[in-house]
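re: that chain from earlier
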Amino acid sequence: MTLALTPLSLRDLALDGDAQRHAIENLLNCYLREYALPRGEADLDCQGLDLPMSLRQHGARRIGIRLAQGARLLLLADRTSVLGRCRFISAPYLKRPGQGWHPLHLAELARLLLAPLNGPELHGELLQQIDNSLQITRTFLRHAHAANQLPTANRAQTDSHERTDSLLASEQHQIWGHALHPTPKSRDGVSPQDLLACSPEVGALFPLHWFRVDPALIRYQGEDPRATLRQLCGRDDLYPCHPWEVQRVLADPLVRRAQQLGLLEHLGTQGLALYPTSSVRTLYHPELAHFLKFSVHVRLTNCVRKNAWFELDSAVALTRLLTPLISELAQVQPGFELMPEPAASTLDLSALGSLEQAREVTECFGILYRQNLDASCRQRYQPRVAMALFTWDLHGQSVCQALVEQCATRLELDYATAALRWLDGYAEQLLGGVLYCLFRKGVVLEPHLQNTLLGFDEHGLPCRVWIRDLEGTKLVPQHWPAAQLEHLAERTRASLYYAPEQAWKRVAYCTLVNNLGEAIFHLAAGESGLEQRLWRQIGELLESQRQCLDDPPFLRELCAGAPLPSKENFMTRLLMRADREAGYTALPNPLTYQRAEVRP
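^ sequence. v structure.
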């Protein structure tokens, strides 16, 4: 997708610079973690004398990366972590043998880093997606800043909800996205106009497309979701789809046949307008009992985000299977909850064509219904998405750091003490629930930043955690023998299983690297001593969980110093692998970390 750009003002140039810096930071952090640091080709505290003049300032670390044929990269960072995560404050500078230093833009940097990697025929697609992500970030920044400057009257409906709904505000204020992904905002397969109409980053609010459908064609699974659909459109005989999906639907031969037979009629947009959440295709309204997770044949970061037919089956099946666990968690881990997906719906046009043709329509119209948090819960706990906390705001300030500073003032504590209490409240709930599910029940959750909600007490300290999105939830066969799943289709059953090692890697990565690792990076505020104390606190919580859970081997080895697994988003995207097939990089264990002992 190419976005047309008008002539740039000084303000636009500044915003474009912000987009470029963040894109470079994402790409280099991925490259450092997945490639350069494991191979000993990077130095997080470079002390060489041969430096470009603009990088000789004091008070910042110089990050050096050795490349093929004697080339070197150098740039400044004001924050680094034991996990190799950096915040850069300069452009990357390149030096080749016999040449001087010169700064690089994102496109030059991307080509340089990809050049020696395997599969050069794949570089073009990734380079295009990196550029796509950059251009979309630029667009979001311009519109986000413009929206923030509009008079309140022009944004009355959105603002009235945002002022009272912390969840909505956090869903729609995530401009930067996944900090360790090479293409965090890439969206292939959608026009610039549709991008702005339906993206959370610009505060979108839009109605659905609706179809009058013969009731015999509609299929419901699990609980009956028709009350939610009726609340959306005010009628009982209509069925919706996402605006990004409607052109694909209307071009489908089975849909056209159904229209010719009078079984289906497109009525256009109408009904209650919905807010896109941080996952883009999942929509929200504070008055609805459910989030609605739609299919969109758009590649967002790694994957085309359609609801595969077996995912409709598996989400509802998992909700049924996990209902006893949800009740049990309320007793044994009362601050930790799973958000069930009790219903799904779609259209079945198999009578009009082949099974393969019908599955395409089934996936296009597939909707999963996720239980919403009720108004009293939202009011009491002021929930926010974790990804909206462990990130930078539009002014480059850490969001969670600002929250902790408010807690420190309220509780009359110094910042470090408040940060330790804040993390303890969050990590105790998160680790307690996730590890109980894995080691006691064989349930593999994906508590990455976008899937995790935090709730807060009256002091602003985390006291509650919700995990959402059962698409990534899996089962360990030893706890869930095939006989318990024999009522499911074979493809659905296969999609639900992870082997024990695969289960541990996914849980450890999502919980300790993607989630708590990013939390500590922000909470530590660049202070290495505080970073050590925060990781030591996580180590103490893990030791406590190890004893409570009868010393599971994976957890025992981690507490003894085994490396942390980190999912390879960069290489997964480069090699065009499914997310389920992603590899893992071994990161140094930070639980017993002493900075003086580490020299990458």
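The longest helix spans residues 10-36.
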